[in-house]
Amino acid sequence: MASMNLFIVLAVVSVVFPTVVLATEFKVGDDSGWTIKFDYVAWAKDKEFHVGDKLVFSYPPGAHNVHKVNGTGFKDCIVPPQNEALSTGNDVITLATSGNKWYLCGVGQHCTIGGQKLAITVLPAADVKLDAPSSAPASTSSAIGVVKIGYQTFVVVLMAITMIVLV
């Protein structure tokens, strides 16, 4: 019975683990960070965001903040109450659900005049598949695909060893 419990635990870990391990951390604005007069539309354009990924908003504390808003708030730069702002200067947001997400800076006119706002679409958690790598151009997503194949191989070997031990 203990062997069967071990097998069940390993099966659950093999399903949950890829989402945690394969999550990508995106530094919003790359080296520029979270700032005014930056093209966040261009920054996000070629990126794929998935459930489990993290957005890191880096900025000098006190200079900016981060608010999560809805589509109307984003379009019109409607700033929520300041007590809802993230303001550490190194704010990390884990993307927990799929769909459209909107963020803006609520300091002064940073959103309306400085364009300090970000809109992204979050896709469901990346599936782990044993498909051959595509011929898509190299990117963060294709690098994740290589890691997934290595992980899949690890899981298959681990499950095979567990089955041998159980039998």
TrEMBL record:
Gene3D superfamilies: Cupredoxins - blue copper proteins. Residues 24-124 form the Phytocyanin domain. PANTHER family: BLUE COPPER PROTEIN, PHYTOCYANIN DOMAIN-CONTAINING PROTEIN. One of its GO terms (biological process) is response to symbiotic fungus. It is a single-pass type I membrane protein. One of its GO terms (cellular component) is plasma membrane. Keywords: Copper, Disulfide bond, Electron transport, Glycoprotein, Membrane, Metal-binding, Signal, Transmembrane, Transmembrane helix, Transport. The keyword Transmembrane applies. The chain crosses the membrane at residues 149-166. It is found in: Membrane. This is Phytocyanin domain-containing protein. InterPro entries: Cupredoxin, Phytocyanin-like, Phytocyanin_dom. GO terms for molecular function: electron transfer activity; metal ion binding. Residues 1-23 form the signal peptide.
